Amino acid sequence: MELKEIIKGFELFDSGDKVGHIEFSEMGGILKITHTEVREKYSGKGFGRKLVIAAVEHAKKHNFKIRPLCAAAAQILKKEEFAEVLA
């Protein structure tokens, strides 16, 4: 797996094949996750979680709190382990 930082997000690749991406915006100390998408052939294998974790690590590194606006990220981030990073 290769994670590539892009402007306002990350892309995830498997052997050069794009698995999916996550998009976010940053403003006023808040990282808003606006879109998370995993290609159908990779769904159900934890790749969406990997993308959300990348966004969480990015937020922690830059001292941001997270507000998940997309349903996929909100579902993953509702777990207690992420409570400290939520806005």
TrEMBL record:
Matches recorded under PROSITE patterns: GNAT_YJDJ (PS51729)
Domain N-acetyltransferase: residue ranges: 2-87
InterPro entries (alphabetical): Acyl_CoA_acyltransferase (IPR016181), Gcn5-rel_NAT (IPR045057), GNAT_YJDJ (IPR031165)
Protein name, entry field: N-acetyltransferase domain-containing protein
Classification lineage: Bacteria, Pseudomonadati, Bacteroidota, Flavobacteriia, Flavobacteriales
